[in-house]
Amino acid sequence: MSTSLDLQLITVGTADGVAIVTLGRPEKYNALNSAMIDQLHRVLDDIAENSSIRAIVLTGSGKAFAAGADIAQYEQATAAEFADFTTRCNTLCSRIAAVGKPVIAAVNGIALGGGFELALACDFIVAADTASLGLPEISLGLLPGWGGTQRLTAHLGASRAKALIMTAGRLTAAEARDAGIVLEVHPAGKELERAREIAADIAGRAPLAIAAIKRAVDYADGAVAGNTGPGFTLEQSLLRELFATDDGKEGILAFVEKRAPRFTGR
Description:
Elements: E1 10-15, E2 18-23, H1 34-49, E3 55-60, E4 64-66, H2 71-76, H3 79-98, E5 103-107, E6 110-112, H4 114-121, E7 124-128, E8 132-134, H5 148-156, H6 158-166, E9 170-172, H7 173-178, E10 184-186, H8 191-203, H9 207-220, H10 230-243, H11 246-257
Parallel strand pairs: 2-3, 3-5, 4-6, 5-7, 6-8, 7-10
Antiparallel strand pairs: 1-2, 8-9
């Protein structure tokens, strides 16, 4: 890895052709703020140009993979700032999906909202048996806007995706595995070791063929790859509209104030 990267919220370790990228806000359950998103973009830039890195493992520090977006940041944001942030987050997930190297999410705890969307953008997920995954944005009067409505539907189908998102439901690691979202489930503390093993196996294989396989499979299931389809565009537009509503502002404020929201339908 480049020594010029200025990272405070992300750590990167490399060995045997594998980069272990760790989200580093454990005191905030790795909630994703602007600085963390920017640093993840820089890490991806560096990895994409580094031919010695052939596979990536993305994980979280402490007790969480990622609790989602930092909602306190939403509460202070203007509509333009919110649009800019969610665009960068959506683009990050798209880059993870499209980078020509396999990306494995090692989900060590909760993966909610944007954290789950980040994991869904990876090629596959290895989870701890204590992991919990879901898209609870409805609780804020919003919807998932980093590709979550599209990628989760690709896995679950429309009915199950709607039910999970509309009820702010959560999946256990075993439920997510049975639904085809999670590849493997392991005892807590072993998921990162297993993800690293898989990544090292892939890193030892022909890199051009691996990149071609990823592209070919994603082409067959376009909702999982990239964010250029009309569904992704609509998702972003709807999220921005919801942020501007009274309910969107109330949901965010209630979260910050740690109280139940009072939605009015406006």
